[in-house]
């Protein structure tokens, strides 16, 4: 059968139109198995794998004492043992609960305070200097004073976490409000939107990226502060687990605690990124 089809062109009679009867092959990059793309996706894993290899070689050839740097196989065995006994999961649960309490209290307070500073120049004049002075002192710098005031119980950790969450979110809220173009607010007034609707429909969608950047920063700082507090003044949690391992000269337990802290931090960051995408999609649907 011929590969030529005939179509009729008005005023010109019939004209041949050539086409191929065979399907046109797709480029290799569109079929999903392109070697370059697979290599690019593997790049983030090169550094961890190289570090793991060096770690194994150092332990295998006794370049470092096993009491200081245990072999990866020993760390894995300790990880499995602590997981089966429930000790690791208990420490993770306690630390994440404390972090959640700090975020649930410190982040909303920081957001509202940031909105106040951003929306009111008078509030910035009155409260801004004191806020900047408090923010200049790291959360961990308050530990000696707070130990004298509230002791070493849960109140100490909660207050430290609230402060660690409050400051970054307040700064992000203030800067995000000020970054919204003035014409957006003018548009809301022209459309007759109430102040609440203006906040939800106009300001918040524009503020979401900056707010969540501040929230991710706050969660990271709070987690660091929490682990340090648990190392200094706690009898449970991931920080205490690492201190207990150091006391027993079991560096494998310390490394397991470090791995758990890193994994929890990555999971929390992924969770916040997913929350940001969901919130932006929800606001877009409502708009």
Automatic annotation (TrEMBL):
**Domain ABC transmembrane type-1, chain residue ranges per copy:** 88-272
Q: What is its main location?
A: membrane
- The record lists the organism as Paenirhodobacter huangdaonensis
Report the locations given in the UniProt record. Answer: Cell membrane
- Cleaved signal peptide residues: none
- Domain of life per record: Bacteria
Q: Which UniProt keywords apply?
A: Cell membrane, Membrane, Transmembrane, Transmembrane helix, Transport
InterPro entries named in the record: MetI-like (IPR000515), MetI-like_sf (IPR035906)
**The protein, known as:** ABC transporter permease
Q: Does the record's keyword annotation contain Cell membrane?
A: yes
Residue ranges spanning the membrane: these are: 44-64, 96-119, 131-152, 222-241, 253-272
What processes does the entry annotate via GO biological process terms?
transmembrane transport
Topology versus the membrane, per the UniProt entry?
A: Multi-pass membrane protein
UniProt GO cellular component terms: plasma membrane
CDD domains for the chain: TM_PBP2
Concerning its family, UniProt says: Belongs to the binding-protein-dependent transport system permease family.
Q: Read off the PANTHER family from this record.
A: ALIPHATIC SULFONATES TRANSPORT PERMEASE PROTEIN SSUC-RELATED (PTHR30151:SF38), ALKANE SULFONATE ABC TRANSPORTER-RELATED, MEMBRANE SUBUNIT (PTHR30151)
């Amino acid at each position: 059968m011929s590969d030529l089809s005939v179509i009729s062109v008005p005023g010109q009679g019939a004209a041949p139109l050539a086409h191929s009867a065979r399907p046109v092959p797709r480029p290799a990059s569109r079929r999903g198995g392109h070697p370059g793309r697979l290599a690019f996706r593997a790049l983030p894993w090169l550094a961890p794998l190289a570090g793991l290899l060096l770690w194994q070689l150092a332990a295998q050839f006794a370049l470092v004492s096993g009491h200081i740097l245990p072999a990866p196989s020993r760390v894995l065995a300790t990880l499995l043992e602590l997981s089966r006994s429930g000790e690791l999961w208990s420490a993770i649960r306690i630390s994440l609960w404390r972090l959640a309490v700090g975020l649930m209290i410190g982040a909303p307070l920081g957001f509202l305070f940031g909105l106040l500073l951003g929306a009111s120049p008078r509030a910035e004049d009155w409260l801004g200097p004191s806020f900047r002075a408090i923010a200049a002192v790291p959360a961990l710098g308050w530990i000696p004073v707070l130990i004298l005031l509230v002791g070493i119980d849960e109140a100490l950790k909660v207050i430290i976490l609230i402060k660690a969450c409050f400051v970054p979110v307040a700064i992000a809220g203030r800067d995000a409000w000020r970054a919204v173009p003035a014409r957006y607010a003018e548009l809301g007034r022209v459309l007759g939107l109430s102040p609440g609707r203006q906040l939800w429909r106009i300001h918040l969608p524009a503020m979401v990226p900056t707010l969540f950047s501040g929230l991710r920063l706050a969660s990271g700082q709070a987690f660091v502060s929490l682990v340090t507090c648990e190392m200094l003044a706690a009898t449970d949690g991931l920080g205490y687990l690492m201190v207990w391992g150091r006391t027993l000269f079991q560096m494998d337990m310390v490394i397991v605690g470090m791995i758990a802290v890193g994994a929890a931090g990555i999971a929390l960051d992924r969770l916040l990124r997913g929350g940001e995408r969901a919130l932006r999609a929800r606001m877009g649907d409502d708009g």
